[in-house]
Amino acid sequence: MDAELLRVTGLTRYYGNRVGCRDVSFSLWPGEVLAIVGESGSGKSTLLSLLSGHLMPTRGEVSYRDRDGRWLSLAELSEADRRRLQRTDLGVVHQNPRDGLRMRVSAGGNIGERLMALGQRHYGRIRGSGLDWMERVELDPGRIDEHPSAFSGGMQQRLQIARNLVTSPRLVFMDEPTSGLDVSVQARLLDLLRHLVSSLGLAVVLVTHDLAVARILAHRMMVMRGGEVVETGLSDQVLDDPCHPYTQLLVSSILQA
Amino acid sequence: MNAEAMPGYNYAYLDEQTKGMIRRAILKAVAIPGYQVPFGSREMPLPYGWGTGGIQITASIIGPDDVLKVIDQGADDTTNAVSIRSFFARTAQVATTTTTEEATVIQTRHRIPEAPLKSGQILVYQVPIPEPLRFMEPSESETRTMHALEEYGVMHVKLYEDIAEHGRIATSYNYPVKVEDRYIMCPSPIPKFDNPKMDNCQALQLFGAGREKRIYAIPPHTRVKSLDFEDHPFEIQSWDEACSICGSRKSFLDEIITDDHGGRMFVCSDSDFCARRVREQEGT
């Protein structure tokens, strides 16, 4: 098996006296999908911001192993290096596509932005990548010049995914990527995500409060409550045989169709 | 200094402390070509948008020995140009001219003169919006970080959008440039026709944005490159017509509507350049 991609030790973040998240440690391997589940306010999003380097921890460390096999501590990188890493190796898919897209820029421009940030200066090739990625996320390439505001919520989410994946990142953070969508659109997006993750060998950290989404996408699962991880294990194991009382409560609160 | 000319006012309108502050900002701007230096912009007897930034720079660098030329859209005889010229004639007792070669300081809005600028001349631009990244990134703290880290990908997103929409780079004025391979800079709303004149220019170029409180500069002999794509290279405007007054085919032409029946003519926007060509033609 490959070496880990991400190593997290004792990650802690306080907001004043309040706990954002406390003492989180785990490792993530290439190609693995980890779901972080828990109710609102349990520290999921704080943890995601810490992992993606958009928030600095009070204590603890996030280390990322780059393509050359070197370990980089996110907190110790210079701002320039951290932002470069965020543009190339990492990706973030926001819950609200408006946070992750440029709404006044066409779909093609949105997808091409990271390429141009990396120094690509050939319009034809940038546009070619845009068309290619529209197709890969099942968007109509004929709409490449439309603005995201002309797209439905599900399409905006696909566009956001394409915009992130165009530089072949190795690790993508997703914050409730399907929560704003209706059930059928959600199902198709999950299908697409599952396909992309397995075909690209992408590692994903997925924050969700939807246990069904976690079950479909994630190999492993971390259950958070009050800023701490209360249970962790393989998805099926956690969902079928929850040990912690809180996880049992979560699992039993799923509405049975 | 001539105190009689404007009793109660300092030479060239601004007080000496303010001039010192602006000169320090100019020195810093010259030291870091293309970098926007914040300065304490003052109220001027002129509305924002009429050249408050340019006029403050001119007031800070002008002396009794200078010869001032002011142009607006290339012309010496438009309202703004006439007012600013007479403002400095009164407050700084400088000689004024409309001839590009005679001027030591040229304050401009929207054009660079057609005649090549010489060493020793200073071109002062009036700038409405100094931040080239503004239209892509509204946050000032973010744009400063992007400048600091040279994260300029979004500028090409803007050009990409142009080509996607129009089939070519349709930006025709305020066309972004990279200065000395480092900072991306707004050339102020000059036509892109004038962009090549900024490159390796012999004169000092100073840019003042009064409302936005920024000064930046291009020192003489500095590389200035207009952004483009490999397969859509930068190009300047060209006209099928020649100037109807002087017949020039090399200058920037304004289209002037002459009647209600679709009548139009093209004339040089640089009035000094045009008038001189006419004089030369009459002379021969």
Q: Please state the average pLDDT score of chain B.
A: 94
Class per helix and strand makeup of chain B = alpha/beta
Distance between the termini of chain B: 44 Å
Low-confidence stretches of chain B: none
Radius of gyration of chain A: 18 Å
> Largest interface, and how many residues on either side?
A-B, 22 and 19 residues
CATH superfamily of the largest domain in chain A: P-loop containing nucleotide triphosphate hydrolases
Query: Number of helical runs of chain A?
Result: 10
Quick one: biggest sheet of chain A?
6 strands, mixed
The portion of residues forming beta strands of chain A comes to 15-25%
Question: Can you walk through the features of this model?
Answer:
The complex is a heterodimer of chains A (257) and B (284). Chain A is built from 10 helices and 10 strands. Chain A has 257 residues and is an alpha/beta fold. Chain A folds into 2 domains: 6-89 and 171-254, Rossmann fold (3-Layer(aba) Sandwich), CATH 3.40.50.300; 103-168, no CATH class. In chain A, a hairpin with a 5-residue loop joins strand 4 and strand 5 (71-73). In chain A, helix 4 crosses helix 5, helix 4 (107-117) runs parallel beside helix 6 and helix 5 (123-136) crosses helix 6. With 284 residues, chain B is an alpha/beta fold. Chain B is built from 7 helices and 12 strands. In chain B, strand 6 (177-179) and strand 7 (183-185) form a beta hairpin. In chain B, helix 1 (16-31) packs across helix 2 (52-61). Chains A and B meet through helix 2, helix 4 and helix 5 of A and helix 5 of B.
